[in-house]
Amino acid sequence: MNLTKRSFRFGGLYRHPDFMKLWAGQTISQFGSRITRGALPLTAILILGATPVQMGLLAALAALPTLTLGLFVGVWVDRLRRRPLMIAADVGRLLILLSVPIAALIGRLSIGLIYAVALASGVLTLLFDVAYQSVLPALIRPENVLEGNTKLATTDALAEIGGPALAGGLVQVISAPLAILFDAVSFAVSAVSLALIRSPEALLGAPDSESTMWREITDGWRVILRQPVLRAMAIGSCARTFFGNFYAALYSLYVIRAVGLTPAIEGVLIAGGGVGGLLGALLAERLPRRFGLGRVLSGALLGSAVVGLLTPLAGRVALLAAAILFIPQVIGDGLITIYMINELSLRQRLVPNQLLGRANATSAFLAQLTAPFGALIGGALGERFGTRTALTIAALGMLITALSMARSALSSASTTISEVFNSEEEQ
Question: What structural domains and CATH numbers belong to the chain?
Fold first, then answer.
């Protein structure tokens, strides 16, 4: 009996056709997205000669959609069928990304176009991600939610391993703008895989006559802010994103200009984060069962922040610098993966389906609230004092944030993950 239950728990989703379609499409899409994530800023740096301030603005634009539209997107995701929204977002991103290689081929590439692509694709990525995080609990059985998120995170980690290295190689062989073409094609694959899903998706229903957009948005805030652990995670994300966007704005500049490594080596370094993410995905279910959910969430954040202090210590000796930079990529990304899988799975199980879109949107809004400020301030500090100094400030900020979160309600979530996820069945 135990063997049967164990086999179902770890192998059930392999026998779920619609989940496998979702998983296959996202595997291809995640690889493509890793290419653009590296190739778009490299286009700005290598082709257009972007400055640290311009790179900070580029990172800030990527976060702007969540701040301006995120809460409204959550309402739409709860009102409409989610899979058609995801398909529309994929098709839109395909068309937007095609503009970069086309502009490069006809000699019309500009930093303004890069900004526009980052902003427009950010809007559609926001729509896709909120729907994506909300569709899984309705597609599979409740007891398989953590398994599903783990499998999707494993794909994400594999893409982190292969995608950046592939992006770096493509940038050097065919140029950064043309490398983005591969991501455009991946969105077409994702759209087709979603269209092939056969499970019916219930329309959650239009709001009653007394409901307003603001009232529905407020419901999303309540469900996050009234739950102590979810509130602690959401508020902590504000600080983490602020300092994390120092890295988003300056990491490529730091690695290529300050440390002197090539785009291909940078791709290998980021791929190391995928290796760590893969290991984290494999441990994401096991560690909370043994040590408790609160300890794992707090410990993962603290450990990631500690190893992040190594990044600004890399010198100009290429081999040694690459080794130093590789450590926070592997260990830090592994620990963050453990944290993110359990955070998302916990939210998906605690929040009712009819509120999940708004809850996910509220969490994303709070996570990105400080992102533009972090990117812009990081870019300004990088230009004034150098990228190494700016990254040092970011690393110290992440450590202070992790220590604060470890002392918050997060540490009181001592219930093991299995107990949390079985609470509905016991009730």
Answer: 15-197+212-426 (1.20.1250.20)
